[in-house]
Amino acid sequence: MKDYKKLMDVLLQLPACSLITTGRTGSDFLQSLFDSHEQVLTYNGDFLFHQFWKESLCVSSGKFDLNDLIAEFIGKHIETLKSKYDLFERKHELGEEGDQSIDIDLELFRVHIVGLISDREVNSKNILLAVNGAYALCLGQDLLNKKLFLHHNHHSSSLKSYLVDFPDSKIICMTRDPRANFVSGITHWAKHDKDSDRGAHLYFYIERILLDAQFLNEFKNDSRVIKIEELGEKIVLEKLCDWLGVEYSETLEESTWGGMLWKGDKLSTRKKEGRGFSANILKNNWNEKLSFIDKYIFNFITNKRLKYYGYQVRPIRKIDYFLVPILIFLPLRFELRYFKLSYLLNNRTLFLSNLYYFVKRIGLFLKYYIREIKSHDYLSKKLRLNN
């Protein structure tokens, strides 16, 4: 019989770290590298737990049965426990031959959560740790070996509620060349989700890219920014493990979920080479897919950032200060299709929505134009993991 009290005591003492993405920047991939690390407690991908807690019918009722809360959690996150239902992340095709999936025993999962929560306050922190602990136990992992709780919050907007429970948590923010990130996010989403092919999605996505890791300025937590392009370098993963307080493990050379090989999500159109990092999957020919004007503007409004991360960049010239604010008012190459005559004739609501977000996008670019011409550092150097 398991000593659940001892196991929960271990979970409550674990240092925590939150993982945040800024678009198509590899947060899922980084988490998958830690999936099989015996010292790391982590779940199957990202999930907005504190949003679930806030919106939970059980919790909002004020008085509820723990088993009902567990049932509600399972119902809303079934694809994380039975990954044969997770078609988007392609976790129904795990393993060497793509014929495996995570298959958690739901009754055992419930029993483990109840055991871990026994005689504890039923609050968001305890339930989140119990859910992660129960998941690990169902996979046969030893909780006594865990030295880190890695939670994939995914969105920076979810950090505040998470940090209420884990105020001393470290934060990892993933980043990528903003031009490649932009092309990846717009082209891949448009291909797999037709409803996203509109001005609103472009604005949301590009706003997220431009913000990048600057949201970390709001928090005093120990944080690091990691470039997806560097995840293939062993020294980067070694430095990351050292910072996180866990040992480097050869399991970091393989991308897995539930211990089974993962070959990338549905949006990954290029073939992934090898079992771990694949530089091939990052190639999207952004230099060809963006117009000259697009690249000209991006080079200016993200100039300090491109230099900070060591990406390809052209120095700003005096004439750029005059041309860029004019060119910002022109549609980006990806925006041109949002103003089709057919939209104006047959779908005026969508046409007007696209026009509205086009104007917002202009304002966003002007904001970053002004920010770029001001004299300031992009980010504190301490945030770079691999300076």
Shape label: globular
Extended strand count: 7
Assign the structural class, choosing from mainly alpha, mainly beta, alpha/beta, alpha+beta, or little secondary structure: alpha/beta
Residue share in β-strands: 5-15%
The main β sheet shows up as: 5 strands, parallel
| CA(first)-CA(last) distance | 48 Å
**CATH architecture designation of the largest domain:** 3-Layer(aba) Sandwich
CATH topology of the largest domain: Rossmann fold
Q: Are there runs of 5+ residues with pLDDT below 50, and where?
A: none
The largest beta-sheet arranges its strands as 2-3-1-4-5
The figure for the number of domains is 2
CATH class of the largest domain: Alpha Beta
Helical fraction equals: 40-55%
**Mean pLDDT metric:** 90
User: What Rg, in angstroms, do the CA atoms define?
Assistant: 22 Å
Write up what this structure looks like.
This protein is an alpha/beta fold and 387 residues long. It has two domains: 4-182 and 211-280, Rossmann fold (3-Layer(aba) Sandwich), CATH 3.40.50; 286-383, no CATH class. The protein has 18 helices and seven strands. It has helices spanning 4-13, 27-34, 49-55, 57-61, 66-76, 78-81, 106-117, 124-138, 159-165, 178-192, 199-211, 234-244, 286-289, 292-301, 303-309, 320-327, 341-346, 348-373; strands at residues 16-20, 40-41, 148-154, 170-175, 223-227, 256-257, 260-261. It has a five-stranded parallel sheet. The chain has a two-stranded antiparallel ribbon with strand order 6-7. Strand 6 (256-257) and strand 7 form a beta hairpin. Helix 1 packs across helix 8. The N and C termini lie far apart (48 Å). The model has no long low-confidence stretch (mean pLDDT 90).
